[in-house]
Amino acid sequence: MFTAESLGIVALILMGLFIGLFIFGVYANKKRLAATFEAAQKESARLMEEARKESDRIVRNAIREAKEENQNRRKRLDQEHRQKQTDIQKIEQKLKAREGALEKKLLHIEKKEKEIEKIEENLESEEAKYRGLMKQAEQTINETRHVLEATANMSSDEAKKHLLKIMEEKAREEIKEKLTNIEEEMKKEAEIKAQSIVSLAAQRVASEYVNDSTISVVSLPSEDMKGRIIGREGRNIRAIEQATGVDLIIDDTPEAVIISCFNPIRREIAKIALEKLIADGRIHPARIEETVQRVTEDFDVTIREAGEQAALDLGITDLAPDLIFQLGKLRFKVTGGHSVLQHSVETARICSIMAAELGMPQRKAKRAGLLHDIGKAVEHDVEGHHADIGANLCEKIGEDPQIVKAIRAHHSEETAELDSLSVILHAANYLSEQRPGARKDALESYIKRLDDMESLVKQNDKIDQVFVMQSGKEIRAIVTSTNARDDDIIHLANDVASRLRKEMSFPGQIRVSVTRDNKFMDFAK
């Protein structure tokens, strides 16, 4: 049996043993935890090193790929730049060739002007000869009168009448023949010169004729936007001009940029594209090319919609798609401040009204009026008068031959040889162009031009009354029988026409009519 003391000693021993084992366990676990923590730190360091190496590898790959992409883009830009430089050189060569052709034509015109001056000098010498002949005739008449009075049984008055009749008939024949020859020569020379001047003006109009119809103004939100449009070293403005074919004028005008171009379609595309770029705020060459291309594609839809709307307003629903597209382009063509599409629609309505009054087919007349100026929409590389170009286009598409004929002749002066539809189209076109407000002309300058014409004609003492008619296209002068003879009428008309040519400038031609007025009065008592 164990005693209480032995049990207490055993208990103390067991307790000490347990405490020792516990202390030993704690110490052993602490060493194991320290080893585990040290291994974890080493593993963490290893992972951090591997992550750093992987990130360095990724960065190096990204830098290498970025450099390769940059080099590829630079190569593409260099190729595009060289291509554009080549295109610019070709355009410059074409311009130089055209300048050479213009210089040749100018020399030809100067030569023709000298020839005309020489002809005028010959006319003056012929006139001097004619006056000398008249003096000789008067002297001969006086001498012959004395001889006849002495040798014949005729009275002085009878001899005078006889001689005057002989000399008058002879002088009439000579003058008539000379005037006919001179008039034919002058007409030929004038026709050649007119053709040269018109062709020269048509080729030079793009660079010399600048007014409100060749510029557009784009508003800017601030003055800082001008610098962004210009870009670094002007690369943005060059990109815009090359992509659109216009000239950008950035001057001191506050918060505005001016777009200049003779082609209204290119000018409108450039305006819309620039407004989109300003609203977007991202202005750089790549964005510029993308925006211009997108606007150009959308602009074709706008043009087609304008042509469809014009045809729909007139009730014409069977036009060919090509004709509708060309009609839409006329919306952006301007003549005298008047839209060509608006003028065509107006002409079509006038044709319809006139055809209805004359009992003719209204739809055909309306169709001819709408298409009569379609040739103005065709690009400049097609040569010829716009009436012939439009007629050829309509004929190719399959329009009615009578409409094609009317379009071809709507500017013809020989109206007596035209058919009824052509006459209606000719008259409607003239009415649309000459009605009040159709042309952009100030009223004061218009009235002053008519007054100047009237004053110039009245300077001739033999003319009693002057009437300027048809908006200055015709002048009618009246002389009395006491101021001039019938023989003087031709000279008066030539004198008035010559003064108008020398002292005034006017479009087209002016018809001069001189009438000799005889008045007879008697009284019945």
Low-confidence regions:
196-212
Shape: elongated
Largest sheet: number of strands, sense, barrel closure: 3 strands, antiparallel
Q: Which structural class do you get from the secondary structure elements? A: mainly alpha
Global Rg: 47 Å
* Beta fraction: 5-15%
Number of helices: 14
Give the overall pLDDT as a whole number.
Answer: 77
- Which oligomeric form is depicted? single chain
For the secondary structure, the number of strands is 8
- Write down the secondary-structure element order: HHEHHEEHHHEEHHHHHHEEHE
Task: Summarize the helices and strands and which ones pair or pack.
Elements: H1 4-151, H2 156-208, E1 215-219, H3 224-230, H4 235-244, E2 247-249, E3 256-260, H5 264-280, H6 285-313, H7 321-329, E4 334-335, E5 338-339, H8 340-358, H9 362-371, H10 386-397, H11 401-408, H12 420-434, H13 443-458, E6 465-469, E7 474-480, H14 488-503, E8 511-517
Parallel strand pairs: 7-8
Antiparallel strand pairs: 1-3, 2-3, 4-5, 6-7
Helix pairs in contact: 1-2, 4-6, 5-6, 6-7, 8-9, 8-12, 9-11, 10-11, 11-12
